[in-house]
Amino acid sequence: MLHTPLRRLAAGATATALLAGAFLIPAAIAAADELPPGEATESVVGEPSPEAAAPDDAEASELDAAPDEADEQTALAPEQAAEAVDLPTPDAATPETPVAAEQLVPTAASTDDPQDPSGEIAPGDTLEIPYTVTGAKMVFVYAIGASIDAAVVRGDGFRVPLNANGVVHSGEYYWLGQPDGVWTLQISNIGTRPITPEYELSYSTSSGTLELFSSANAPALSLTADPIVDGSRRSGLTVLSELTGPDGTTYSKPVPPIFPGSTQYSVNYTGLPDGRYFARVWTVVDGVTYQSSRTVGVHAAETDPPTVTLSTTPDAPNANGWFRSVSLAFSGTDAGSGYLDAAFAIDGGAEQIGYLGVRYPLAGDGEHTVRYRGRDYQHNYSAWEEATVRVDATAPQIALYGIAEGARYAVGEELFVEYQCGDATSGLVGGDCTADLPDGARVDTTTPGEYRFTIEATDLAGNTNRVVRQYSVIAPDTTDPVVDVEQPAVPASGWYLDEVTVRFTASDESGIRLIHYEYETNQGTVRRDIEADTAEVTFDRSQYYRLSYWAEDAAGNRSESRDLDLYVDATAPWVDMTTPADEPSILPNGHYAQHESVVVDFSCDDDASGIASCEGSTPDGELLPTGTPGTHELRIVATDVAGHRTERVVSYTVDAAPAQGGTGTGSSGTGGLASTGAENVVAALGLAALLLGAGAALTIRRRVRTR
């Protein structure tokens, strides 16, 4: 292989070809599977770097960026981040050599400035290349060239300088999705001669990507790619790779499948000089280029262990040597391949991985032993070390007896305070708690008033517990309690309609022991003692009640018994109907003859408040209207004094009298029989016979409405 200078890719490729598919899920995402949630974002490439400004062309050959240990960790495959890496067998024992330009396979993902087909940037000028980004999960961007400064302006207008590694400037932006829109790559010539840099912006989506994993700071550089096209892993593809060293030297190799038919592709680069390289892999499927890139490190084999440091947050325990809460963190240095992580175990438990920059809370009260050691990228381990960390997160315990919260004590009453304090872990400051009175002391109850007793305990870790009891000392109570009665306003009738509720509230300086009430019913006397300062009773039956009540305070004083008279009417009045009634008239089946004389007879009554009115559509004692044939109603309304109302309706039927025949009467002198009245009897009997089968139409219905 031959050395080749910096190059730029085919000018005929367009941004449209770049964006025809979805690109690239970073190796950082895979490595993050081994990192605790939330920490991998700390190592995202693309933050401003002090190395962003590269020197002039004349100094380019001297560029050699030191390995970035934090970034290197994100380049690990999951299995490489925690355990020793079994890299594929190197392709050859001889060192890799630079590759001639004609041996390289250009990627269609690069593009030139449409306004500058040559891609050349004059000294002091800036080339801006726009890319349309839609639905990106991760965006990769890089520019290769000496004497350049590079940055990317995201779709939301935020500008991020690219990280510089020698002549390679690169950035990776991922995790939470990226803003849609036009991303602009900005490349500035900070040298003294025109330059033609290589550059590219590509991105991955949820359905199309090329995942890239790599070794880290190992003697041989291993690259592994997983192509995903239209949401599926693909085999049978041609995958290519390229490395660019810090001095611009380029190396290239195909990436074969790890075995025939595999959807995973892997390649080794051996014999590379130590340093950090810009690696990228790509494949073309149906005219769409899928690509992934990142910065990786190479370091010669070494066996020197790293130095590891255990730190805590807070930085140190308190003056007594205790933490109230604490978290652990592990860091280290390594002059060779670089510090990777630590292994640690707490109190002889399972071994855990302590990632750089991650804090691990230490839970559980007591004295803990932390055993730990460091590891570098070539899996050299430091010797095990131990540290003792003491934690007490629990406040002391206080048990207080003798004084009850809110208690009321009589003047001169004997009252003693007792308490116990303790702490199960670090112990109490001074060996005991502090209180207003010594344990077992008598409490002064000679003076009436409101008082407070306080006791406090603090342990050696600084946890504090405090108990406060409020109590009262009261003078002898010789006054009767006061009972207030609440009841609805008495209606104008003097009767409560349906029900009434009475509520008692008693008060006294020594407190209320009970409220007593009683009343008579038809079944006997009801008596209640309510041990509270409030009570209530509801009456919902028709009756006159005499409610007697009194209260007793805590000192034994009893209020004067009082009576409350209550009148309750919970039932409606009723109507008694005599005539018309369900009895036959002179006509069969309850019909009435036209003009029949029927005297209306009804009455009203009530169980409680009595009848206020009893009125019918035909008054009691008057004749029932029978002059008009047909069905008629007699309506009676009864109202009691409390206000209940009952309505009763009686329906009856009047039958029409038949028309009389003949040409005259006996008085007409036309030959007829003298009128004796017998013909009327005969006519009446005939009418009766005619109506015998007519059927009764007397119905009675009752409707009751209350209130």
UniProtKB/TrEMBL annotation:
Signal peptide: 1-30
UniProt domain Ig-like: residue ranges: 449-473
Biased composition (Acidic residues): 54-72
Keyword Chloroplast: no
Regions that span the bilayer: 681-700
Pfam families found in the cross-reference section: Big_3_2
Keywords assigned by UniProt, alphabetized: Membrane, Signal, Transmembrane, Transmembrane helix
Gene3D superfamilies: Immunoglobulins
Region (Disordered) residue spans: 38-76, 107-126
Name by which UniProt lists this protein: Ig-like domain-containing protein
Source organism per UniProt: Protaetiibacter mangrovi
